[in-house]
C-alpha cells in the first residue's frame, strides 16, 4: 500500500473530481437500496400482508401523509422506474468523471516518468532494457489507468453498499440479517488472502511480457541485420520461446483466477440459498412477510456480489500495485547531476585532462582509462587513434559529461567540468556519436532538432556536412521522411545528417567519435575541409581508427589499453617506433594491396 502513496501526488489536481464521483456513487447506492423496499411494499400490499408498524414502512407512510398504501401502488411502480433511471444516470456521470480523473492522473505520471527518463545518466541508458522501459511507460500505465477509472470509486461503492444494506436489513429483521451476513466474512477473507498470495503471479507475468516486448523491439530495430544474415528462422525461434514462456505464465495466472471465481461463486450462491431457506422458514412461521423475504433476497444479492467483486478489485489492485512498483523503480533512479545551480561560463574551448582515470561503477577494479594527460588549445584539432577497446570513445563521453572521472579532473578554460551546468555544457560541447541516430521525421527535423533554426542555417549546416547535394536529389528535398532510425538513407548519409545537426549552432568544442567511418575517402576529405573552414574558432576532437583521418590534425595521441602511449604530429609518429607506425604501415600495406589487387596479411 505504501508504494501507492506517490501516486496520490499525481492525483492532486483531480481530488475534487474524484470527490464528486464518490458523492454521485453514494447517491446511486441510495437509489439501489430504496428499490427493494418498494418491492416489499408492493408485494405485501398486494397480498394484504403489509405490516404498517414496520418502522421503515411507517416512515414512508408518514412522509407521504397517507393512511393506506393500497391506492398508491402505481406511484411506487413509478418511483421504482424513476429511481432505476436516476441510478443509471448517476453511474454514467461517475464513469465519465472517473475516466477524466484517471486519464489526467496517468498523463501527469507519464509526463513525470518521461521527463525523469530524459534526465537519467548515460550509464543507466547504457544498461537499460529498452523494451522493458517502453512497457513500463505504456502497458503498466494502462493497467494503472484501468484501476483508477474502474476500481477506485468502485471500492467506495462496495463499502457503502455493504454498510447500508446491512443497516436496512437489520431494521427489517435482525434474525434474517444474521443469516444474510453469515458467509460474507468467509467470502471477503478468501478474496483477500487469495489475491495477496497471487500478486507474485502478476509480477511474473508482467516480467514475461516485458521480455517479449524486448524481443519484438530488438527484432524490428535490427530487421536489416536479420534480413542480411537470413536469420529470420533464428529470430522466429527466439520469439516463439519467449511467446510460449509468456503464454505459460499467463495461463498459470488465469488458471488460478478461474479457480478463485468458481469457489467465490459457490460461496455467494450458498449465502443467497441460505437466506432463501431461512427466509421461507420464517415466512411460514409468520415471523416475516413475503415482501420482507423478497426485499432480503435483493439485499443479500447487493451484499454478497459486491463482496465477491472485491476479488476483482483486489485483482486489479494487485496489478496496479505491480505497475506502480515497476514505474517507481525508474523514478527512484538517481537523475544525472545537472548542477542546475552550476556555472554557465562563455566557453572558448581550451580543454585539459589532468591525470584522469575512469572505470565503470559495476566493475570498479577494471580501469578503462588511467593516467590520461593531454590538452587541446582553442581552435586546435586533436586526433585520437588506437585499437578497438583502447578507451577512445570513453574520452569523448567524459568530455561530454556523460560520465565523471574516478580520479583526476577535466578542465575547460580552467574550469572543472563537474562545476558547469550540464545543459549549458552540452550546448558548447557537441558530440557526433559513432552510430548516428535519426528520428523518424523529416531531414529538416533531424538537422534542426530544437525546431528553432532559420532555413538558411539548416542549408548551411547541410552544405558544411556535404549532404546538401544528396538532399536536393530527393523528391521532397529537406522534407523527405527518413523512416525509423533513418532506414531510408545510407550509412554515410545518416552520418552527415548527424554532423549537420551537431554544427547547426556554433559550438566551442566539437567531438567526432569515429563519425566519418561510413564515408568514402573523397567525401571524408571534403567534410573535414568544410568543417575546418566553418569552425575555425572551435576546438575539435576526432576519434578515429584511420590514419588518413588523423594525419591532418594539429596533434595526435595514440591510445592502447586505456593509456596514452604516444603523442605528436603525423610526421613524427610515422617514423618513430611504436603503435602509430605499426598501424600506419599496416594501413598503407592494406590499401596498396587493395589497389594492386593482392591480398594483404
From TrEMBL:
Domain (ABC transmembrane type-1) ranges? 19-319
Principal location class: membrane
Fetch the Gene3D superfamilies from UniProt. ABC transporter type 1, transmembrane domain (1.20.1560.10), P-loop containing nucleotide triphosphate hydrolases (3.40.50.300)
This protein is called what?
ATP-binding cassette, subfamily B
Give the GO molecular function terms.
Answer: ABC-type oligopeptide transporter activity; ATP binding; ATP hydrolysis activity
- PANTHER family assigned: ATP-BINDING CASSETTE SUB-FAMILY B MEMBER 10, MITOCHONDRIAL, ATP-DEPENDENT PERMEASE MDL1, MITOCHONDRIAL
Signal sequence span per UniProt? none
Which SUPFAM superfamilies does the record associate with it?
ABC transporter transmembrane region, P-loop containing nucleoside triphosphate hydrolases
Decide whether keyword Signal is in the record: no
Q: Which organism is it from?
A: Alkalibacter saccharofermentans DSM 14828
- The ABC transporter domain is annotated at 351-586
What UniProt keywords are attached to this protein's entry? Answer: ATP-binding, Cell membrane, Membrane, Nucleotide-binding, Transmembrane, Transmembrane helix, Transport
Question: Which parts pass through the membrane?
Answer: 18-43, 72-94, 147-170, 176-195, 257-282, 288-307
Amino acid at each position: 500500500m505504501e508504494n501507492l502513496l506517490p501516486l496520490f501526488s499525481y492525483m492532486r489536481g483531480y481530488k475534487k473530481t474524484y470527490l464528486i464521483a464518490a458523492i454521485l456513487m453514494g447517491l446511486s447506492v441510495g437509489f439501489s437500496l430504496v428499490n427493494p423496499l418498494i418491492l416489499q411494499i408492493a408485494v405485501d400490499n398486494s397480498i394484504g400482508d403489509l405490516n404498517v408498524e414496520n418502522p421503515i414502512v411507517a416512515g414512508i407512510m408518514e412522509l407521504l401523509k397517507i393512511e393506506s398504501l393500497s391506492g398508491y401502488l402505481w406511484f411506487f411502480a413509478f418511483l421504482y422506474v424513476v429511481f432505476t433511471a436516476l441510478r443509471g444516470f448517476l453511474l454514467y456521470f461517475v464513469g465519465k468523471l472517473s475516466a477524466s480523473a484517471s486519464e489526467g492522473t496517468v498523463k501527469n505520471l507519464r509526463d513525470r516518468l518521461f521527463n525523469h527518463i530524459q534526465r537519467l545518466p548515460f550509464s543507466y541508458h547504457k544498461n537499460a532494457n529498452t523494451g522493458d522501459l517502453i512497457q513500463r511507460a505504456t502497458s503498466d500505465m494502462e493497467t494503472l489507468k484501468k484501476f483508477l477509472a474502474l476500481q477506485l470509486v468502485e471500492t467506495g461503492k462496495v463499502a457503502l453498499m455493504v454498510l447500508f444494506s446491512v443497516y436496512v436489513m437489520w431494521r427489517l429483521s435482525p434474525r434474517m440479517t444474521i443469516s444474510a451476513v453469515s458467509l460474507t466474512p468467509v467470502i471477503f477473507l478468501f478474496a483477500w488472502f487469495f489475491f495477496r498470495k497471487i500478486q507474485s503471479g502478476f509480477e511474473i507475468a508482467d516480467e514475461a511480457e516485458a521480455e517479449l516486448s524486448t524481443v519484438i523491439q530488438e527484432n524490428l530495430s535490427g530487421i536489416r541485420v536479420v534480413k542480411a544474415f537470413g536469420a529470420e528462422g533464428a529470430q522466429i525461434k527466439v520469439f516463439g520461446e519467449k511467446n510460449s514462456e509468456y503464454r505459460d505464465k499467463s495461463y498459470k495466472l488465469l488458471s488460478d483466477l478461474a479457480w478463485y471465481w468458481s469457489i467465490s461463486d459457490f460461496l455467494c450462491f450458498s449465502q443467497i440459498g441460505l437466506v432463501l431457506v431461512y427466509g421461507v422458514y420464517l415466512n411460514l412461521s409468520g415471523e416475516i412477510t413475503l415482501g420482507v423475504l423478497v426485499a432480503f433476497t435483493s439485499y443479500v444479492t447487493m451484499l454478497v456480489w459486491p463482496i465477491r467483486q472485491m476479488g476483482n478489485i483486489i485483482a486489479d489492485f494487485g496489478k496496479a500495485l505491480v505497475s506502480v512498483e515497476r514505474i517507481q523503480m525508474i523514478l527512484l533512479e538517481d537523475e544525472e547531476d545537472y548542477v542546475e545551480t552550476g556555472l554557465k561560463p562563455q566557453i572558448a574551448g581550451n580543454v585539459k585532462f589532468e591525470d584522469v582515470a575512469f572505470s565503470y561503477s559495476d566493475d570498479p577494479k577494471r580501469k578503462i582509462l588511467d593516467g590520461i594527460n593531454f590538452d587541446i588549445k582553442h581552435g586546435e584539432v586533436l586526433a585520437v587513434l588506437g585499437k578497438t577497446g583502447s578507451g577512445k570513445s570513453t574520452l569523448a563521453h567524459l568530455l561530454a559529461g556523460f560520465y565523471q572521472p574516478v580520479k583526476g579532473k577535466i578542465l575547460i578554460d580552467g574550469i572543472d567540468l563537474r562545476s558547469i551546468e550540464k545543459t549549458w555544457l552540452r550546448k558548447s560541447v557537441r558530440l557526433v556519436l559513432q552510430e548516428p541516430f535519426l528520428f523518424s521525421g523529416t531531414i529538416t527535423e533531424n538537422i534542426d532538432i530544437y525546431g528553432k533554426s532559420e532555413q538558411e542555417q539548416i542549408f548551411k549546416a547541410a552544405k558544411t556536412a556535404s549532404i546538401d547535394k544528396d538532399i536536393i536529389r530527393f523528391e521532397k528535398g529537406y522534407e523527405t521522411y527518413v523512416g525509423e532510425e533513418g532506414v531510408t538513407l545510407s550509412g554515410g548519409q545518416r552520418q552527415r545528417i548527424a554532423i549537420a545537426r551537431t554544427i547547426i549552432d556554433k559550438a566551442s568544442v566539437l567531438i567526432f567519435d569515429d563519425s566519418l567511418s561510413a564515408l568514402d575517402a573523397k567525401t571524408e576529405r571534403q567534410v573535414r575541409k568544410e568543417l575546418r573552414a566553418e569552425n575555425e574558432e572551435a576546438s575539435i576532437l576526432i576519434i578515429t581508427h584511420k590514419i588518413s583521418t588523423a594525419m591532418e590534425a594539429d596533434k595526435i595521441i595514440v591510445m592502447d589499453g586505456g593509456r596514452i602511449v604516444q603523442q605528436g604530429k603525423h610526421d613524427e609518429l610515422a617514423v618513430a617506433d611504436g603503435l602509430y607506425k605499426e598501424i600506419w604501415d599496416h594501413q598503407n600495406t592494406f590499401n596498396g594491396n587493395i589497389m594492386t589487387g593482392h591480398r594483404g596479411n
